[in-house]
Amino acid sequence: MKRSDIPYLDDLRAFETTAQCGTVRSAADELSLTHAAVSRRINRLADMVGTPLFERSGRGLRLTAAGDRLAEVCRRSFDDLSRTIVSIRESQATDTGAILLSCERSVAMRWLIPRLSEFQDTHPEIAVHLSVGGGPVDSKQNRATLALRRLDFAIVDGWSVVPLFDETIGPVMSPDMFSDFEQGDYIALGSNTRPDAWDDWLRRNPDAPRPRERRMFDHHFLMVEAASSGLGVGLVPHIVALDDINRERLTAPLGFDPDGSRYGVLHPSQVPLDENAVLLLEWLRNRSRNI
User: Fold this and answer.
1) Residue 232: closest CA among 247, 211, 246
2) 163, 206, 281, 291 — which has fewest CB within 10 A?
């Protein structure tokens, strides 16, 4: 296959995002495109491949066998691209003395990024480079100045921790789904990053209505978009749903319960934080008090 025969990158992004989100509407919001633009790109890709990539499934879409194969390849390819770009960005940030802040993907997208301009406006002289990542950090491999993490893992040698706030989770849904939720006529949306979350929450809340079906997404930010679009009820951390609840895109009728974990900021203990990093750390501590 000649390189000129490879599909447009925009078409592949529209397809892969729709596969992740489950609806064209959610993918359009994620990509800041119109519904028609996303549909047009998916149809163009399907014509090039020579077979449909999606089929209707209730209020959403389901991948065909061919679509599932292509989506997996796209996911791996985009992940490789993302890791390469992050690696280059980390090297550049370290070389220029800028602050490199690593943050879990969903927290970065749903909480940190919408607020980071406040810090940048107050301290325009401080360059903050953001990368996404989760779980344990290795001081020998990760060059981040600060790493915002959910502390559900053992802290390896070489990293110090500044606690921020306790993790709380709860079911969220679009306001017009509350009646279905009360009657147990709802789809439970979960995240592959926490596959047992619904089982644990239902055990802690035995009187809560049970779902009729479950569906999983790769990340919490995708699940929140699916819940906002009316695809089901998402079980999410408060920090990820906070802004949508304030905008009344989502409601959390049962509130949020502590799950026993907490968030914190890690930094290399063998390297003293400079003045700029201390300012960013203090800003994170102050901003997280509102969660």
Assistant:
1) 211
2) 206
d(CA 114, CA 129): 15
Asked whether the beta carbons of 219 and 191 are under 8 A apart, the reply is yes
The amino acid occupying position 12 is: L
Q: How far is it, in rounded angstroms, from Cα 263 to Cα 111? A: 13
Return the residue matching tokens 């001081």.
139
Q: How far apart are CA 170 and CA 243, in angstroms?
A: 15
Residues 101, 189, 31: CA angle, nearest 5 degrees: 50
Q: For tokens 């390819």, what's the residue?
A: 77
pTM here is 0.66
Architecture of the 97-155+263-288 domain: 3-Layer(aba) Sandwich (3.40)
Beta bridge pairs of residue 146: 101
Residue 20 main-chain phi, psi, to 5 deg: -75, -45
Mind listing the pLDDT tens digit for each residue in 243-289? 999 999 999 999 999 999 999 999 988 878 889 999 999 999 999 99
Q: Is 252 exposed, middle or buried (0-12, 13-18, 19+ CB in 10 A)?
A: middle
Tell me whether strands 257-268 and 146-150 are parallel, antiparallel or unpaired.
antiparallel
pLDDT tens digits along 194-241 = 999 999 999 999 999 999 999 999 899 999 999 999 999 999 999 999
CATH code of the region 3-77 = 1.10.10.10
* Phi, psi at 275, each rounded to 5°: -60, -40
**Per-residue pLDDT reduced to its tens digit, 73-105:** 998 888 888 777 766 655 555 545 578 899 999
CA 51 – CA 48 distance, rounded (Å)? 8
User: Residues of 126-136 as b/e, b for ≥16 C-beta within 10 angstroms?
Assistant: eebbbbbbbee
Helix (H) or strand (E) holding 110: none
CATH number of 168-261: 3.40.190.10
**Is 3-77's fold the same as 97-155+263-288's?**
no
